[in-house]
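As agreed, record copied across for absentees:
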Amino acid sequence: MAGIDWLVLSGTLIFIVAYGVIKTRKFNSLKDHLKGGNSSNWWTIGLSVMATQASAITFLSTPGQAFHDGMGFVQFYFGLPLAMIVICMVFIPIYHKLKVYTAYEFLEQRFDLKTRTLAALLFLIQRGLAAGITIFAPAIILSTILGWDLKLLNVTIGVLVIIYTVSGGTKAVSITQKQQMFVIMSGMFIAFFIILNSLPEDINFSNAIDIAGIGGKMKVLDFSFDINERYTFWSGITGGLFLALSYFGTDQSQVQRYLSGKSIRESQLGLMFNAVLKIPMQFFILLVGVMVFVFFEFNQAPINFNPQVVEYLEQSKDPYYLTQKENYVKIKNDKKELQYSYVKSKNTGNNTLEIKNKIIELQILEKNSRENIKEIITQKNSDLETNDKDYVFIYFILNYLPKGIIGLLLAVILSAAMSSTASELNALSTTTVIDLYKRNHNKNKSETHYLKASKWFTIMWGIIAIIFASFGTLFENLIQLVNLIGSIFYGTILGIFLVAFFIKKVKGNAVFYSACISQTFIFLIYALTTVGYLWLNFIGAFFTIISAIIIQKMMRKD
């Protein structure tokens, strides 16, 4: 990295932290710290909600996901607008009417203390794990690519977030997320236009889309009913709906964003802002990844984007690897010439079917070469991560973007990590102090005491997240790991809330026992089957509701 990149990166991060600290230094009450003094307008809420969900994993993994698998991942978000409407109509009015600090306070008023505590604990477990991954994701990629110390990166990201989250609480999180979203989207748009400008002169955007289509990257919709497929239209509309309902309606890291609103209307408008823009934003981020794919159709790409894998193979001088590498380079060069021929034929109105078929054949051979390399690595050194989806975009950034822009895109990644982690720590602290500490242990302390406690709990959860991040390991794909963890727990939590809102005859004992049974059932499904994780949200919620009704009827008979 050049000096200008370091200047842009450090300047951006220092500005965001300083801005958050300075703007919120006068907020001293518990309400100010945990609910932002109920002063947020709708667009602040909307940007904060989007920034909370759009972690560094989104900007590292999603383009890589599109590079390998295409645009189909956008179906994951199809249920989100429907969920926003339900939350605006049902959840928000109740939360505001009861003036709660956390979503789980409502459960005690509707059911009992043990149900509130159970839901809070389920949230703390899954969100505590996710906070560690949110830090770990950018840290491990940057450490691998740039050679930075992984643990130092974990600590740096964690400490920066702790500073302004402890200083200003919810308000600091919300106002810094506005700046972070500006940095994030500016960086992504700049990267997108640089990619388009870096394509060969006779390859325009329309040609690029055609080339991506030949590679199978532009298939947005899958209407198959295979529940083992992770991303289909139906899993997005159903599983995605239930995941979004649980995440935005019951996850304190999101609930806290709109509980800070000036009024019910401001909170509702903030969520509808997210409903309108979220799918286009994710579509655009995936499209960036697809354009990176097109870029590498005309530029030489490594046989694996994880530099540690390539370095290991080069040092090993394995004859099979050298043969595969030679074949891979030849395939790439042949395919590049065919892509030029395809565009030329298409622009002149000639038949392109034969050329397309040849390109597809070479793409299959290229994929086989990549898979063969993964098998070599798995056999020789199983400790190396062969799945390179999370490395694709950062490789492109560091090797093909101009100086200064590299620093901006790294600032995008770290800003996204900080925004999501700040929301998570803020929510973890609030839930711990309100639902566990204040409610179960120290009920009659002063507001100052609880304010100090919330800051100490923020530090505690920050340290836990840093520790977890330091001992984390890469999964198949980081964005899938975060969504998987959420899906394992969200269904049960959502089921509790849906019973609370809509099934008045079910009481506390029934829903408590049904939630415990449902969570155990979900663990078993995940461990013993290959069901796509999005379906776990629907199954968990459905099982919790049905079992709660049955248990309640059995209790009445007794």
Notes: The chain has a mean pLDDT of 85. The first helix runs from residue 3 to 23. The chain has 22 helices and no strands.
